[in-house]
Amino acid sequence: MAYTTINKSTDYFNTKLYTGNGSTNAQTGVGFQPDWLWVKCRSDANGHQLFDALRTTYSLSSNESANEANRASDGFTSLDSDGFTMNGSGSGGSTNVNGRTYAAWNWKAGTGAGSSNTDGSINTTSTSVNSSAGFSISTYTGYGGASTVGHGLGAVPKMIIVKKRSGSSYDESWYVYHQALGNTHALGLNSTGASSDVNVWNDTTPTSSVFSVGNDSTNRSGNLFVAYCFAEKTGYSKFGSYTGNGNADGTFVYTGFKPAWVMVKLSSAANENWAVFDNKRNTFNTTTVQRIRANDTQADSTSNSEVALLSNGFKVHDSDAEINGSGNTYIFMAFAENPLVANSGTDGVPATAR
User: How many angstroms separate the CA atoms of 55 and 126, rounded?
Assistant: First the structure.
């Protein structure tokens, strides 16, 4: 079995919990510059804020379809070498209100602002790539119609998230490609809808160099877009699907590692949310893991959200249709707490049960 060569998942992904202070607030201890930073208030109903190194202080909200907004005047100032910094502008905005608690999910991509990728028929404005972790960020300007965009991974993406950043209001939804859904279907990250048959991927499976965009939703001429692409790394990341059983003693989902972060979405039916779980908002794998919904502004929820993060996967302990409806199909993305590794050494140890 081929394992990832990543020794510590915290070199590439980490969850940081913090409390806002409405003033200068430098969060350190992430372990790297967070090239993709996703912040959500835990204690109050506030929107999600997604930043990345290519868009600096501009954020997008996974719970809404609006174009990006500059948060420099709303409390966010910079992505740093070991975390990120905020201040008291706009009373802390959605990331630094005094006394409120937050979860910050951090991913490492490439170095700096990246560079243009010319593999596709659309040249990216910039692409930041971390081939070891199977993650890249690309920004591009829509051309219109069927086109391809280079992702730089050198491997076939298993999941792609695309969002229009600016331009007309023709379609501002988030679009998600997942290998379990195929190239004809997509989900909306800001939506409770089921997987739908759309042409946003031009009915074409991504390759090791490009992904395809098929219409104005992902390629409207003159509009700006951002794409987050993920290739699977055995022992570190997993992008799969499972079938719910509707029982409190629910489905076990094998990932091959102990998850640090999991996002789940019902794909076979509508009216359910994107549920996000991590290992920092809960410290024991036999108790309720707190849930945040990517498409919703609500605070942390422990109601009907029992998921156990185990040494080789996760197990649902709930009959809730959002994560375990009988006969329903769910897609997920997961990242490891302790990767199974190929090399030996101080950090080169496999994940262990707890």
Answer: 10
What six digits make up the tokens of 321? 């249709």
Q: Phi and psi of 151, rounded to 5°?
A: -110, -15
Provide the token pair at 48: 């999600």
**The tokens of 56 are what?**
């600096």
The CA distances from residue 83 to 29, 223, 228, 249, 310, in Å, are 6, 30, 20, 38, 28
CB burial of 6-42 (b: ≥16 within 10 Å; e: otherwise) equals: bbbbbbbbbbbebebbbeebebeebbbbbbbbbbbbb
User: What is the separation of C-alpha 255 from the centre of its chain, rounded to a whole number of angstroms?
Assistant: 17
* Alpha-carbon distances of 113 from 31, 33, 79, rounded to whole Å: 19, 12, 12
Q: 307-326: per-residue pLDDT in tens? A: 889 999 999 988 889 999 99
Helices (H), the chain: 216-219, 321-324
Structure tokens at 233: 């790394």
The span from the CA of 291 to the CA of 347, in Å, is: 30
pLDDT tens digits, one per residue of 107-156: 999 877 889 999 999 999 999 999 999 999 999 999 998 999 999 999 99
pLDDT > 70 in the chain, percent: 89
3-class SS at 92?
Answer: helix
Rounded CA-CA distance 83/21 in Å is 16
Torsion, CA 342, CA 105, CA 269, CA 198, rounded to 10: -90
**How far is 259 from 33, CA to CA, in rounded Å?**
21
What angle is formed at CA 293 by the lines to CA 300 and CA 99, rounded to 5 degrees?
35
* Residue 212 to residue 123: CA distance in whole angstroms: 13
Q: What angle do CA 17, 19, 20 make, to 5 degrees?
A: 130
Residue 345 pLDDT: 42
Structure token digits, residue 97: 């209100």
Half-sphere exposure (Cβ direction) of 337: Cα atoms closer than 13 Å: 21
Amino acid at site 210: V
Contact 140, 166 (CB under 8 A): no
